[in-house]
Design brief:
single chain, alpha+beta, globular
């Protein structure tokens, strides 16, 4: 008579192999949302007031501030405009009430970075971070296929740049330019624009300057 087969021991769950999202991605959303919330409170704006001036829903703005949504560069530019600051105000430490900063030098190892990880765009702030700054210098990295989105967007100020590596497609109004390494550009930020990296196998790096011209 055959003996009943011994029950196989239950398989142990694999240890040390948990699949979790990259911690820097949601953490970046939380940090950016917190800066937007702090700026809004410093300006004494309600969510309703910001929603009315941006055509974004109160629910979406609340999700951004809580780090539950990853805003596009277009949305961030719109919010910065309404809050009377440049996008650089979303980098680094939370802004103070007066936005003052006496920092002059930014070390290469201490550059604040804003990663728009869903769209393949990241911006390193090369100039000292302050909500009061009108002129800011960035190093923009565009991953292969990275872009600001299909929609053109506008914001206050003026911008210029120099392509350091790779290729960038720049659209301003209805004109499109293919910029290669060494090409440069300048335009008023109130003109509808967008940009992207058309390459599927190479990153683009652009030295970018933004100047905020409206009063904060």
């Amino acid at each position: 008579m055959r003996k009943p087969a011994a029950a196989k021991p239950a398989r142990k769950a694999r240890s040390g192999k948990k699949v979790t999202p990259k911690p820097t991605e949601p953490a970046m959303d939380v940090a950016v949302g917190r800066r937007i919330r702090d700026l809004r409170r410093v300006r004494q704006f309600s969510l309703e007031a910001v929603a009315a001036r941006t055509d974004l829903s109160i629910g979406f703005l609340s999700q951004i501030e809580r780090g539950l949504s990853s805003p596009s560069l277009r949305v961030l530019a719109t919010l910065a405009d309404v809050l009377g600051v440049g996008i650089a105000a979303l980098f680094g430490a939370s802004p103070s009430a007066d936005g003052a900063s006496d920092q002059i030098v930014t070390r290469g190892s201490q550059r604040p970075e804003l990663k728009l990880w869903r769209t393949g765009v990241s911006k390193q702030l090369l100039s000292p971070a302050s909500a009061d700054n009108k002129l800011n210098l960035f190093l923009v990295h565009l991953e292969p296929g990275g872009s600001t989105g299909d929609e053109l967007y506008t914001h206050d100020g003026e911008e210029a740049g120099l392509v350091l590596e790779g290729e960038m497609m720049l659209t301003v109004d209805s004109e499109i330019w293919s910029l290669k390494t060494g090409d440069s550009f300048r335009f008023a930020s109130r003109r509808p624009h967008r940009f992207s990296n058309p390459a599927q196998d190479a990153k683009a790096v652009v030295l970018w300057v933004n100047c905020v011209t409206a009063a904060g």
